[in-house]
Amino acid sequence: MLNILKLPKINFKDFHSQSMFILSYRIVALTSIFFSILSIVHFKSRSLTFWVCITVLLLSLAGIWYMRKYGKHFIIAKVIIFISTILIQINIYNLLNPDRYMDMIWILIIVLYSFYAIGLVWGVTTLLINFLGILFYQFFVVSPDLKPFNTYSSAQQVDYVLTVVFGGIMICYLLILFYKTQNITNLKYRAANEKLRVNNKVMLEQNKEKSVMLKEIHHRVKNNLQVITSLLRLQSKDIEDPEVIKQFNEATNRVIAMSLIHEKIYQTEDLSNIDLSAYIKSLTDELIRSYSVNIPVQTEIKANLNFITPDYMVPFALLINELTSNSLKHGFKDKSSGEIRISIFEDNNTIAFDYHDNGTWDIKAEKVSFGIELIETLTEQLEGTYTRTTENGTKYSFVFPINI
Question: Which residues form the Signal transduction histidine kinase subgroup 2 dimerisation and phosphoacceptor domain (predicted)?
């Protein structure tokens, strides 16, 4: 029996509709439980009370079935109000019932429910019906527990009528004011939600357009950088000095590193972040092809920092470009195979970036090289520090702040 208190799964347009449905459903469910108990209590007597309880119980169960199947409460709420009003009025006119206070409480409950669950018209109608019923009882029905109205003095009669009328007007006014305030609040709430929904839709469309435009810009920048790369390679064919050709190739690789950044940006869905692991893999593979080393070179990339912002990507890319280029130029001269291991991890609000190869670099040549100076400059630009060791190969260990 208690399982009927469990609400059905229904999607509602707004919170107000949902709360009205929940209130109506639980009232019907609790009513069915209450009248089930009363039916058992009055079962032996088979009196009028028993048949009233059975009727209300069956109506409650029908209401539960209807609400669970169709997810609507207005019809059920109207039935609740109608039956409750009839039962309250019958109980008021029951001369064997000396207590009228509970009737007043039930009237107040059903009127408030009418305003909340159905609306202004039903609320006012329910209030007037019950109000007129009470007045009729007081004026025309003789009750053993109440002093007849016609025995009051003229002043008492006027005072009573004015008090009842004023009280009814005040209750009606307060309920109408509450309903209007709630209705205005709901209208403003829905209007604000609708405006927010429209604004969000516009912003999403604008962001989509901007994303498309930015991707197109990055695509064009990437194409322009590729044109520059092609021009540098064409121009290098007319140069006979090997050292100058070498410098041209290094400049070309730096342009390629930046070109790959723009390529990854316009290929990604989120323009604010770039897939770092995929970028490093693409860059190292491109550099290995570019330098045409005569030995196999294996790369291993480990990272728990998968994405990095575009503002820091360019110096970071150039840093990886210089390290990889130096490994390919200097580290593997006497090796039958090359290994490059790159690891990037977040650690204590910093980013630990380790670059390790199995070669031995020419330290004296590095001190005067543009590449080493560029590594130091890029590290400073990223507000980081680094150390260099040459045990079991060459290893650079960088530490950068987390804001990159």
Answer: 216-291
- Distance between CA 255 and CA 273 in Å, rounded? 21
Rg (CA), the chain: 42
pLDDT in tens, 177-217: 566 767 777 787 888 888 888 888 888 887 777 777 767 77
Structure tokens at 137: 């009882």
Name the more confident of 31 and 383: 383
pLDDT at 147 over 60: no
Buried b / exposed e across 213-235, counting CB within 10 Å, b at 16+? Answer: eebeebeebbeebeebbeebeee
Domain residue ranges of the chain, discontinuous segments joined by +: 14-198, 297-404
Q: Percent of the chain beyond pLDDT 90?
A: 3
pLDDT of residue 96: 46
Give me the amino acid identity at 39.
S
Helix (H) or strand (E) holding 170: helix 154-236
Q: Which long-range contacts (CB under 8 A, 24 or more apart) does 394-398 make?
A: 394/327, 394/331, 394/356, 394/357, 394/359, 394/360, 394/361, 395/354, 395/355, 395/356, 395/357, 396/323, 396/354, 396/355, 396/356, 397/352, 397/353, 397/354, 398/319, 398/352, 398/353, 398/354, 398/355
Structure tokens at 295: 């030995």
Q: What is the DSSP string of 54-120?
A: HHHHHHHHHHHHHHHHH---HHHHHHHHHHHHHHHHHHHT-TT----HHHHHHHHHHHHHHHHHT-H
φ/ψ region of 328 (left if φ > 0, alpha if ψ in -120 to 50, else beta) reads alpha
What's domain 297-404's superfamily in CATH? Histidine kinase-like ATPase, C-terminal domain (3.30.565.10)
Q: What is the 3-state secondary structure (H, E, C) of 360-380?
A: CCCHHHHHCCHHHHHHHHHHH
Nearest to 114 by CA among 175, 62, 165: 175
Residue 355: per-residue pLDDT? 92
What 3-state class would DSSP assign to 46? Answer: coil
Range with top average pLDDT, 52-61, 234-243, 378-387: 378-387
pLDDT given for residue 190 in this prediction: 82
* pTM higher than 0.70: no
Looking at residue 367, its pLDDT comes to 44
Tell me how far apart the alpha carbons of residues 289 and 252 are, in angstroms, rounded to a whole number. 13
**Average pLDDT of the residues of the chain:** 75
